[in-house]
Amino acid sequence: MSIDLFQSVYKGKKVLVTGDTGFKGSWMCLWLKELGADVYGYALPPLTKQDNYVTTGLASKIKHRDGDVRDKEKLQTYFNEVQPDLAFHLAAQPLVIDSYNNPHYNFETNLMGTVNFFEAVRHCPSVKVAVNVTTDKCYKNNEIDYGYKETDPMGGDDPYSASKGCSELITNSYLKSFFTKAGTANIASGRAGNVIGGGDWADNRIIPDIIRAYQNKKDLVVRNPTSVRPWQFVLEPVFGYLRLGEKLYNNGKKFSGGWNFGPVPDETYNVNQVVTEVKKLIPSVNVTSPANPEKLHEAGLLQLDITKAMMQLDWKPRLNFEKTIDVTISGYLQELKPGTDVYAARLEQLKQYCSEGVQKNN
Ligand SMILES: NC(=O)c1ccc[n+]([C@@H]2O[C@H](COP(=O)([O-])OP(=O)(O)OC[C@H]3O[C@@H](n4cnc5c(N)ncnc54)[C@H](O)[C@@H]3O)[C@@H](O)[C@H]2O)c1
After folding, report:
1. Residue 307 domain-assigned?
2. Of 28, 149, 300, 361, which one has the greatest count of Cβ atoms within 10 A?
3. What is the dihedral of CA 307, 309, 313, 318, to 10 degrees?
4. Neighbouring C-alpha atoms within 13 Å toward the C-beta of 17
């Protein structure tokens, strides 16, 4: 099967992606590049040599500008220079713990970054489609066994979740205030769950923590073993964002608004189950609990209702839990093997994802 699941919408188009140096952004740019898009990135430089953007050599395959999304003028200038057809906003402060350590930076980046993104779109008439990437944590979380729907209220107790709830409110405000008339850009947001896959080296995320423990032969400290999350292989939400972009491009404003992308309801697992599944593939990792557990608030139970995306976008998750963990761990093991062409390895995973997806409910 072809990797073009998008009716060739991206072929030959200029696509601007903020956050291209990040985990999800770099995977998305790789897919766009392989679809024949002219890809332009805007973000802070990669943090480490291990980052997916660096190991895949993406810098030589797309055009990138170092820049801060808090810098309104610089972002606007870049949009004006590029004149993109479609734009995706993935640049953000994405970590709950970091949002406690520096709430001001978190709010500035995630709120004003979103405002600056939509301002740039608003003043750049070439843009036909703009998608803001937020998170499942944008919803007011009642800690009940319930999958949040797109119509549920925004919320968020910790600074990260609150900033993403605000980013959604900003998106809605721009949509209602500036993007309803014919001829304006079609805008939407994508809300995805906990995303995993090779190339994510962020601190305090369970899979990178496991891989670091494995590499360094150290114990794995598990902070929230019973927390339930909508785990997904990175290409699942990226597939969703790109499908959303295609629908907005081809069919217009009826696809505006918020969209959930997550696993099917019987595919939600807690952190312990993730660790158990990973240990089947790399058994040498030893698991411990934190000596002095911190009492920072983080949602315990988080599930998404993905009916809307399944019914209206013809999108659905392609991998079950086992396959998700399998493809994730093999992604890391590939990149850790000296001499691996990481770009080629990721491309192979993309091709497999498009052709061999297995879904338990089929
Ligand atoms: N990874 C997940 O599990 C997950 C889940 C739900 C939502 N998200 C969201 O997806 C998006 C991408 O997340 P990720 O996991 O790839 O994160 P990441 O940390 O790997 O990448 C973040 C990107 O944003 C850029 N960035 C951060 N602050 C910036 C600033 N001030 N100016 C310009 N660029 C800046 C970074 O340079 C990087 O390119 C974020 O919006 C995040 O909140 C991620």
Report:
1. yes
2. 28
3. -90
4. 33
User: What is this structure's pTM?
Assistant: 0.95
Nearest CA to ligand 1 atom 8: 135
Q: What is the CATH number of the domain that holds 261?
A: 3.40.50.720
The angle subtended at Cα 5 by Cα 3 and Cα 9, nearest 5°, is 105
pLDDT per position as a tens digit, 257-296: 999 999 988 888 999 999 999 999 999 988 887 766 656 6
Total Cβ atoms within 10 A of residue 205: 18
One-letter identity of residue 116? N
DSSP, collapsed to helix, strand or coil, labels residue 105 as helix
Beta pairing, strands 129-133 & 186-192? parallel
Structure tokens at 70: 């808090």
47 pocket-lining for ligand 1 (C-beta < 6 Å): no
Residue 155, pLDDT > 60, answer yes
The answer to whether position 225 is within a domain reads no
316 in any annotated domain: yes
The verdict on residue 97 lying in a domain is yes
Closest C-alpha to ligand 1, atom 42: 94
Q: What is the mean pLDDT of residues 199-218?
A: 93
Least confident segment among 165-174, 197-206, 220-229, 340-349: 220-229
User: How close is the Cα of 135 to the center of ligand 1, in Å?
Assistant: 11
- Provide the domain count of the chain: 1
- Expressed as residue numbers, the domain containing 36 is 14-197+231-267+300-320
| Pocket residue to mutate for ligand 1, from 28, 44, 161, most atoms within 8 A of Cβ | 44
Which residue lies with its CA nearest to atom 2 of ligand 1?
195
